[in-house]
Design goal:
heterodimer; A: about 280 residues; alpha+beta; 14 strands; B: about 800 residues; about 25% strand; globular
Chain lengths: ~280, ~800
């Protein structure tokens, strides 16, 4: 657990930080360090330069910006989980943050860091997909927005370039008739530890029927993914238990399910259905 | 004669304020000037021939002091072990035998440089076929140790101590019962999986050779400071008096720190070579792939019984995974299982286990060490038998207990016997406390509502506080470590001139609460307040020789030594007090920080006055030898056999296979209790580790011998949040083999719990047709078992 030598930079402004990333090929951004540091200590990943954004002011706020919330780069999982704003307007994200890691990890790790890290079994990745969030990425050459649906490229690979910092996450606020939820089975059973399988669901109902829905899975494949067929099957239904059950059978349509130490393909495919069903039921409840 | 309430008092652990504030002193808190750091190059192959090792790049790096390979350490004595068959090399230069085996050691200015240099060493390997599967090893298709005739190192067979013909006769009798028309045969192959001990403080060692005094100081996070000093002395060719080992605070051991490890010897030797202190700190990955692992059995348990619940015979046929080498207790672990193979039951038992080598990390003692495995098999198969004949599992157990009046029950010719027990009384107490009938009604109601709720029971008996000394003749001999004692405990009690007392013990705690327990023992004997008693431990320089802290032996064996030492001090102090009070020494009573004449509390003298004349003997009776201390070695006549019964109520989520523990109720019997709070704490930890085995933990190797669960990401251990609030109760059946009547409790929770959980889960899913699920009962396993049964 001893990393290779690396240079440590601690800029105090975003401009300095993105300049440091631009001028140091292979440099890596660090916020909470909950995933980066263990990888470095196991020498599985050895960036020559670490750019710690922890001393940059103004990145730790959750703001209400009218039709969406903005979650800053240094907002900790615990802040996301405990935020009345997130709980009210983006329940799936608050629930996923509350089930991320343990108390120590939640007090140090960041929501944006978990998104940028793109672990295949993370919790909040599924939530931002279901909530149709937008990532705001800043680099020395400018700022761009990335839709959550385009964010997760592969295991531990997001659409962010090495020069970019995920400065904030824009999460549409759930309005009238809209609701969301996240639920999972953890590796230690119950909801403890990484997701063996987890699902986030966002649903909009009007006049007694489901008008729009988005469902996302985590833990079952190489990355968090939208389960588009589930939404297609659910939209237009009454959102009843039987409609949810029927829609959930499409959980892994088009999804590559992978075996790991915690489940076979058959088991994980089954769990995907179970948790899609439970997330939808919790969202609609 | 208890004169204070110290013995039996629920006194808060005195060590905790320092430990929970981060003020405890562990090996890494000790810093020496001029320190260097060691790192090891470890084999990436489970079995391979080393063709060459190129250390040139590493040696050329700034800050690298030395690189050592097998050839450099040939002159050192080998690692020593109990019943050793295939000792682990200090560094392997020939054929490596497991992933993680050390092949080179780097010493550098700091650990970062050392690790960089280790990474820069190129080892050319020729991979060979690895043997991982136990049945494959047993077949001897590939021999792991060159020159050996078999991978089977030894086979243990019981009835223990009987002649082979007599053992065979027992087996023949069981086989004959199997053939009868009126008997039921229940048989199941079960895995008791390998576990990684995972102490919160991984191992570390700091060694400092002092060329001026020709002495070696070693700080190590070990359970066996005196044996480690002996092991290092033997290997380095030094007298034991030249080696001082200190085990400061030790952050958990569980058996994993009950070995003299190659790194401890190599770091000590390197310090002597270089004239600089050398530190080695184990990483989590090294803790998983080079420190010992536990369990690792596969076996078939068979019960033959009548339809009305009388067990006519129990046959166990198992294979135990020894890993690549035999370390301290490796082959003795299954042997411990043999002693308790038949659990609490009186029945003909034929119990056999083949101990085989594989190309994996060596196994050795892990909390319970052979006893949880043995208890798992008997308690699972008894449950299956009960289900088969449609009898309540509590009733079947009741019908087959060893009757309480039959104790002591002889186990072997060396005077080894089950000391005391009242199994029926204990199980009844559990059933009543838990309202067993009520739980069964609750279960029925839950089932009617479509819920999968199960109730599981396990009884257990274990053996600990190992004795008598005659066991040494069976191969358990500590003499090779330079230890003069085989199964002794030791303790020194001193009353100081300021009326405080010092207790010095030859072992040290790794979380067991010695600071508190020993103070209570001595306080009870001398009437000195616990707060005025200091317990010193873990330093071989100033302590009487002690065997170590393992096998739930400390209170029963070392505690008894302190008890007797305190009594001897009291005898002398009574003479002095009688002199001061002008009374007869038979009438002296010790209490409340002093002595008084029985029946006349006003006629008293404080300990300070007694201590003063003990050291200034011109005021004492003529002929009084100065000083007020005693050192005692205590050898129990026999081991102790704690027992108990546990119950769990669980709910299974049929959709996911997830197990939730609704209630966990324990009824343990460890004889008399010194500190109920510490006993509860030990049971809490023990049950939690048993639940870890039942539900989460598994060291998983692939067929090439790669450890797939070598990091905490893939080796989930239970946390406080994963276990229910334990409901703990006790019955009290004292032992007669030590003066306090205490038995061990450190391992009992682990020994009783894994099968309690599995029995409950199987009970929950039995209506679906499931009869057995192998541990760990991760949700996938439970779900798959349900699918298969459907």
């Amino acid at each position: 657990m001893y990393p290779r030598e690396f240079e440590y930079l601690a800029p105090t402004s975003l401009d300095e930080a993105v300049a440091a990333l631009a001028s140091n090929p292979g440099a890596k951004v660090m916020a909470g360090g909950m995933s980066l540091i263990p990888l470095m200590k196991m020498r599985l990943f050895s960036p020559p330069v670490v750019v710690d954004i922890g001393r940059i002011e103004g990145l730790d706020a959750i703001e209400d910006r009218g039709d969406h919330l903005a979650v800053g780069a240094l907002v900790r999982h615990a802040d996301t989980a405990d935020s009345p704003l997130v709980q009210q307007y983006a329940a799936a994200l608050a629930q996923a943050a509350a089930l991320t890691g343990d108390a120590q990890v939640r007090n140090r790790g960041t929501t944006c860091g978990a998104i940028a890290h793109a672990d295949l079994a993370a919790d909040q990745t599924a939530a931002v997909l279901a909530l149709n969030a937008t990532l705001v990425a800043k680099s020395a050459s400018g700022t761009r927005e990335i839709a959550a649906a385009d964010c997760f490229v592969d295991t531990l690979t997001s659409a962010l370039t090495p020069e970019e910092i995920l400065v904030e996450l824009l999460v549409p606020k759930s309005g009238d008739g809209e609701s969301s939820a996240y639920t999972k089975l953890g590796r230690r059973g119950g909801e403890s530890d990484y997701a063996v399988a987890g699902a986030a669901a966002w649903v909009r109902k009007s006049n007694g029927s489901v008008d729009a829905a988005r469902v996302a899975l985590t833990g079952v494949g190489t990355k968090a993914v939208l389960a588009g067929s589930v939404s297609d099957a659910l939209v237009g239904s009454d959102g009843s238990a039987s409609a949810i059950e029927a829609a959930a059978t499409h959980a892994t349509d088009g999804v590559t399910v992978l075996e790991d130490l915690y489940g076979s393909v058959a088991y994980k495919s089954h769990l995907a259905q179970v948790y899609v069903k439970r997330a939808l039921a919790a969202a609609i409840e | 004669m208890s004169t204070t309430s110290a013995l039996g008092g629920a006194i808060r652990r005195r060590e905790d304020p320092a430990l929970i504030q981060g003020l405890g002193r562990y090996v890494d808190d000790i810093k020496l000037p001029g320190e260097t750091s060691a790192a090891f190059v470890r084999s990436p192959f489970a079995r391979a021939k080393i063709l060459s090792i190129d250390t040139s790049d590493a040696l050329a790096m700034d800050g690298v002091l030395a690189v050592y390979t097998a050839a450099d350490v040939e002159s050192l004595g080998p690692l020593i072990a109990q019943l050793s068959f295939a000792p682990r090399p200090l560094l392997n230069g020939g054929e490596v035998k497991h992933v993680g085996e050390a092949v080179a050691m780097v010493i550098a200015s700091d650990r970062y440089v050392a690790q960089d240099a280790a990474d820069a060493i190129f080892v050319d390997y020729e991979p060979l076929e690895a043997v991982i599967d136990l049945k494959d090893s047993l077949s001897d298709r590939v021999l792991i140790h060159e020159g050996s005739e078999s991978n089977t190192i030894i086979s243990w067979v019981g009835p223990f101590g009987a002649e082979p013909e007599a053992q065979q006769a027992v087996k023949d009798g069981i086989d004959a019962a199997r053939e009868r028309d009126d008997t039921v045969v229940v048989s199941q192959e079960m895995v008791n999986q390998r576990l990684i001990p995972t102490a919160i403080e991984p191992r570390r060692v700091l060694a400092e050779w002092n060329p001026g005094y020709n002495t070696l100081n070693v700080w190590s996070t070990t359970q066996i400071p005196h044996a480690l000093a002996g092991g290092i002395a033997v290997s380095l060719g030094l007298p034991t008096t030249s080696v001082r080992v200190v085990a400061p605070e030790v952050g958990g051991g569980f058996g994993a720190k009950l070995n003299v490890y190659n790194d401890e010897i190599l770091v000590s030797w390197a310090s002597k070579q270089l004239g600089r202190p050398v530190r080695w700190v184990e990483t989590r990955r090294e803790a998983a792939n080079s420190t010992i692992q536990g369990r690792g059995w596969i076996g078939t348990a068979t019960i033959v019984g009548t339809r009305d619940g009388e067990i006519l015979g129990y046959d166990f046929d198992g294979i135990a995974d020894m890993g690549a080498y035999t370390q301290n207790f490796t082959v003795a672990i299954p042997f411990l299982g043999l002693f308790v193979g038949s659990g609490q039951y009186k029945m003909p038992t034929y119990w056999k286990i083949d101990c085989v080598a594989t190309n994996t990390v060596t196994t050795d003692a892990y909390r319970g060490a052979g006893r949880p495995e043995a208890m798992y098999y008997i308690e699972r198969i008894v449950d299956m038998y009960a289900r088969e004949i449609g009898m309540d599992p509590a009733e079947v157990r009741h019908k087959n207990f060893i009757p309480s009046e039959e104790f002591p029950v002889a186990i072997s010719p060396v005077g080894f016997a089950m000391d005391t027990g009242d199994y029926a009384m204990n199980l009844d107490a559990l059933l009543e406390t838990a309202d067993y009938a009520g739980l069964r009604s609750e279960q029925e109601a839950a089932r009617a509502a479509g819920r999968l709720v199960g109730v599981g029971l396990s009884t257990y008996v274990e053996v600990c506080g190992f004795a008598p000394a005659g066991l040494a003749d069976l191969g358990f001999n500590w003499g090779t470590y330079g230890l003069p004692t085989a199964f002794n405990g030791s303790g020194l009690v001193r009353v100081n001139p300021d009326a405080t007392a010092t207790v010095i013990i030859g072992t040290g705690p790794s979380g067991q609460g010695h600071q508190t327990t020993w103070a209570q023992i001595v306080s009870d004997r001398l009437g000195i307040e616990v707060d005025n008693i200091t317990v010193k431990h873990g330093d071989t320089t100033d302590s009487p020789v002690g065997i170590g802290t393992f096998g739930s032996r400390s209170a029963a064996v070392d505690g008894s030594a302190a008890y007797e030492a305190a009594d001897r001090v009291r005898v002398k102090a009574a003479k002095l007090a009688a002199h001061l009070l002008e009374a007869s020494e038979e009438d002296i009573v010790f209490a409340d920080g002093g002595a008084h004449v029985a029946g006349s509390p006003d006629s008293s003298v404080a300990w300070g006055e007694i201590a003063t004349i003990a050291y200034q003997t011109h005021k004492a009776p003529e002929g009084t030898e100065p000083g007020l201390e005693s050192e005692v070695f205590f050898t129990p006549a026999n081991a102790t056999w704690p027992f108990g019964s546990h119950l769990a109520m669980v709910e299974v989520d049929a959709e996911t296979g997830n197990v939730e523990i609704l209630r966990y109720i324990g009824m343990d019997d460890c004889g008399n209790v010194i500190n109920p709070m510490i006993v509860d704490g030990q049971v809490h930890g023990g049950i939690t580790q048993g639940i870890g085995q039942a539900l989460f933990e598994e060291a998983i190797y692939d067929s090439d011998g790669n450890l797939l669960s070598g990091s905490m990401i893939d080796y989930p251990i239970p946390t406080a949040g994963d276990v229910p609030l334990f409901e703990l109760h006790r019955t009290v059946t004292p032992t007669d083999v030590n003066p306090m009547g205490v038995k061990g409790i450190g391992e009992a929770g682990t020994i009783g719990s894994a099968q309690t959980i599995v029995n409950a889960v199987v009970d929950a899913v039995a209506p679906l047709g499931v009869t057995h699920i192998d541990m760990p009962l991760r949700p996938r396993r439970v779900w798959e078992a349900i699918q298969e049964a459907r």
